Amino acid sequence: MSAVKPLEAVARDRVGKGAARAVRRQGQVPAVIYGGNQPPQAIAIDLIRTRTLIYAGGFRTTVFEISAGGRKVRAIPRDFQLDPVTGVPMHVDFLRVVAGQSIEVEVPVHFTNEDAAPGIKQEGGTLNVVHHTVTVEVAPESIPDAITVDLTGKAIGDTIHVSDLPAPAGVTFVLGGDEVVATVVPPTVLGAEVEAEEAAVAEAARAESAAEAAEEAAEEAAKDEAAKED
Q1: What is the pLDDT of residues 31-90, one digit of tens each?
Q2: Span 93-114, pLDDT tens digits
Q3: Burial per residue of 140-172, b for 16 or more beta-carbon CB atoms within 10 angstroms, e otherwise
């Protein structure tokens, strides 16, 4: 599991859009800590630190020890908003971590040993990933960094279901066991799609060229007709 990370914050007395804009002008990100049968606590966290944590990956599976207003509280990010144009963090929601509590989090799925999968290495197949993350129920202190799937021996046509995933101690998968996580597909499946797309583009280009040629011919004919009338 990921280690608990410290996070410095400033307690906020004011909330609302105006207060949030003022926080952002100061180079901070407005945030809220909620849950644990306690009132929500409004805080502000450093913009650069927040952006680094989000884009480093694993943000939503990391438990933070947040220091704000002379108090320390453990919490895990539940959601965050980014500016749709700049990608700058605009707001973060944290959920308090309570002892003995289980929470649902999305954990990334990593695939290893593709070189040891005959369907990929020898037969030229492709790993078609359906779920890049899976939702698990787990105690905050036991959140895994990732679920790792070994592709050794996988052939074309093999399917990896949720029931095939290795479950670390204390981790329960929320998705049903029959849910498909990934499949090894033959090269012709993706190749045919690419060929069809290329053929459609080529046909569209030919049609456009033919239309342009017809338009040019019509213009030339009109010019010739006008010259004859003169």
Answers
A1: 999 988 888 999 999 999 999 999 988 898 899 999 988 889 999 999 999 999 999 999
A2: 999 988 778 888 889 999 999 9
A3: beebbeebebebeebebebebebeebeebeebe
Taking a C-beta distance cutoff of 8 angstroms, is the pair 176, 162 a contact? yes
3-state secondary structure of 89: strand
CA-CA distances (angstroms) from residue 84 to 25, 89, 180, 185? 18, 10, 31, 35
Cβ burial 22-49 (10 Å sphere, 16+ → b, else e): ebbeeebbbbbbebeeeeebbbbbbbee
Provide the residue type at 99 as one letter: A
Per-residue pLDDT reduced to its tens digit, 130-166: 999 999 999 888 888 889 999 999 999 999 999 999 9
Residue 219 structure tokens? 């213009």
Query: How far apart (Å, rounded) are the C-alpha atoms in residues 105 and 76?
Result: 10
Pairing of strands 147-150, 133-138: unpaired
Q: What does the alpha-carbon distance between residue 54 and residue 114 come to, in Å, rounded to a whole number? A: 28
Please choose, from the candidates 9, 10, 109, the residue with its C-alpha nearest in 3D space to the C-alpha of residue 61: 109
